[in-house]
Amino acid sequence: MTRRSRSSVVRGATVFTAAAVVGAIVASTVWVEATARGHVYGVDDAPAAPVALVLGARVENGAPARYLAARVDAAARLVESGRVEVLLLSGNGSGDSGDEIAAMTDDLVARGIDPARLVADPFGLNTRDSCLRAARTFGIARALVVSQGMHTARALAQCRDAGIEADGVDAPVAVSRPAAIRQFGRELLARPKAAATRLLGTPPTVESPPTDAVRRALELVSR
């Protein structure tokens, strides 16, 4: 093969790869946005639901970092307003940055949220895992899912794909422009992965026997 022929092959492969990546991003974004359309709300206008699924995020020095702090604040407001009875805290209980569940729990209890309203899932290692485990392990059929920005729409789509009648709650957070751009890029790349795991039927990283912890919490707080 001549040098010119090899160059043509490389260019063709590069163009094909780029087209495939763009196509995957577009297709997955269409799925996410079509599923989420009309189902994402602000904290103050969110519909009522028995449970809110609060998704974990980075912890700093044992406390919720900026994104997680905003989610915790939104979750507390949902309980305080009477829109939600129980919070399922789903995240990595032994993550590189710290225990996301402990950080969320401590913050919520410090805000006066009754610990009886809190159910922990320390094996929500990613968004798909959190949604699948909420449905399969905790038996949730109806919930609000709390995150922010573009991730709210993806989490909502993944929860609905798991069989949960879900609505999203956007917990806005102020970040710098570079941080916002990084999050945008990260989310664009996460959507094709979400679509791929959906098509492949990828199971959660950790599968646990069903538990009635959420049902018991709902019964306890309704007494």
Write the layout of secondary structure elements.
Blueprint: H1 3-36, E1 40-41, E2 49-55, E3 59-60, E4 63-64, H2 66-80, E5 84-90, H3 100-110, E6 118-121, H4 127-136, E7 142-147, H5 149-161, E8 165-170, H6 177-200, H7 213-221
Parallel strand pairs: 1-8, 2-5, 2-7, 5-6, 7-8
Antiparallel strand pairs: 3-4
Task: List key phrases describing it.
Rossmann fold, alpha/beta, six-stranded parallel sheet, 223 residues, two-stranded antiparallel sheet
CATH topology: Rossmann fold
CATH class: Alpha Beta
Tell me the CATH superfamily.
HUPs
Strand order of the largest sheet: 1-8-7-2-5-6
General description of the model:
There is one protein chain. The chain has 223 residues and is an alpha/beta fold. The protein has one domain: HUPs (Rossmann fold). It contains 7 helices and 8 strands. The strands form 2 sheets. The chain has a 6-stranded parallel β-sheet with strand order 1-8-7-2-5-6, sandwiched between helices. Strands 3-4 form a two-stranded antiparallel ribbon. The longest helix has 34 residues. The chain is globular, with a radius of gyration of 19 Å. The termini are far apart. The relative contact order is 0.17.
In short:
The protein has 223 residues and is an alpha/beta fold. The chain is built from 7 helices and 8 strands. It has helices at residues 3-36, 66-80, 100-110, 127-136, 149-161, 177-200, 213-221, and strands at 40-41, 49-55, 59-60, 63-64, 84-90, 118-121, 142-147, 165-170.
